[in-house]
């Protein structure tokens, strides 16, 4: 019984050979796919808006994304603290 226990500990202590520092491929590929997809959609949206509307939209319908992002982070923090 002791031999089986020690063998199991040895397997658990060894890092997986399929990834870097014990990470599997999904942990490495998923953020890359997400970031690439996000970048592609952002570029396509920017090109479509620039081609169809031009830069005049910035003068009349500017959204302060930094303020929106700040408020969403504060809201999420308040939600976490209260829940």
Quick summary of this structure?
This protein has 83 residues and is an all-alpha fold. It has four helices and no strands. It has one domain.
Q: What features would you describe in this structure?
A:
The chain is mostly helical. The chain has one domain (2-82). The protein has helices at residues 2-13, 25-52, 56-60, 65-82. The longest helix has 28 residues, at 25-52. The chain is elongated and about 75 Å long.
Topology summary:
Elements: H1 2-13, H2 25-52, H3 56-60, H4 65-82
List low-pLDDT spans: none
Count of the domains: 1
Shape: elongated
Structural class: mainly alpha
Continuous helix count: 4
List descriptors.
mainly alpha, 83 residues, single chain
């Amino acid at each position: 019984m002791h031999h089986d226990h020690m063998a199991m500990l040895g397997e658990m202590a060894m890092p997986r050979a399929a990834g870097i520092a014990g990470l599997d491929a999904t942990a490495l590929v998923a953020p890359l796919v997400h970031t690439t997809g996000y970048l592609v959609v952002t570029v396509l949206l920017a090109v479509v808006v620039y081609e169809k509307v031009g830069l005049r939209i910035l003068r009349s319908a500017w959204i302060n994304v930094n303020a929106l992002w700040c408020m969403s982070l504060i809201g999420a923090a308040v939600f976490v603290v209260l829940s």
